[in-house]
Structures are given as C-alpha cells and as structure tokens.
Amino acid sequence: MPIIRARTNRARSVRHICRLREPSRDALVLYARFVGDTVDYVVNQLIETTLAKDRDFLAWRAAHPDQTAAATPRGPLAATREADAAIVRGHRCAD
C-alpha cells in the first residue's frame, strides 16, 4: 500500500525551483508513477507528512507565527540563496 494516497482536493500552487540529486529525482518520478499522480503532488505530500512529524519545527513555527516564506533569507543558507539568485540572473559570484 502506498504511503502517499491520491489527492482528494486541490490547493493553490506556486512555483518553486530547486535542485535534486539524480537518484532522488529518479525515485520521485518513479513514486509518482507508482501512486498514479504528478511529481508536484508527491513533493507536496512528502513535505506535508515529513514536516508534520518534526516536533522541533512545529514548536518553532508556533513560537514564530509572524514568519513567512516571503521574508528576506537570513542565516547560514542566505549566502547560498544569494549566489543561486545571481546565477539565475546570469552572474557568477566570486569564490
């Protein structure tokens, strides 16, 4: 029996571009075929089910209700995000 079941409703979607390691991408595509749905749906279900089990993250979300995904990136990954954005704009960052 699949862990991820076929969708029962549709929610608003937004576009997010990310990189996957090739074995992860292959498993994702094959799992989507297995459950008979789209890769997008499987990614969303994986995120929902995984984050719902992370008690530390849930506590952090409860303590930071004003945090949104649209907020300016800060922290250890901010430099990576800025470098990725520069590459998308056609610029390379100095090493």
Count of helix runs: 4
Shape verdict: globular
Instruction: Specify the oligomeric state.
Output: single chain
Order of helices and strands: HHHH
- Rounded to the nearest angstrom, the radius of gyration is 17 Å
Overall pLDDT level: 81
Point out poorly predicted stretches: none
Beta-strand segment tally: 0
**Which strand-content bin applies to the residues?**
under 5%
- The helix content is 40-55%
* N/C terminus separation: 48 Å
Which structural class is indicated by helix and strand composition?
A: mainly alpha
Largest sheet descriptor: none
Task: Output the keywords.
95 residues, globular, mainly alpha, 4 helices, 0% strand
Plain-language structure description:
The chain is mainly α. The protein contains 4 helices and no strands. The chain has helices at 22-35, 39-52, 55-63, 78-88. Helix 1 packs across helix 2. The longest helix is centred in the first third of the chain and has 14 residues, at 22-35. It is globular. It starts with 21 loop residues before the first helix and ends in a 7-residue tail after the last helix. 1% of the residues are buried. The model has no long low-confidence stretch (mean pLDDT 81).
Structure described in brief:
By secondary structure, the chain is mainly α. It is 51% helix and 0% strand. The protein contains 4 helices and no strands.
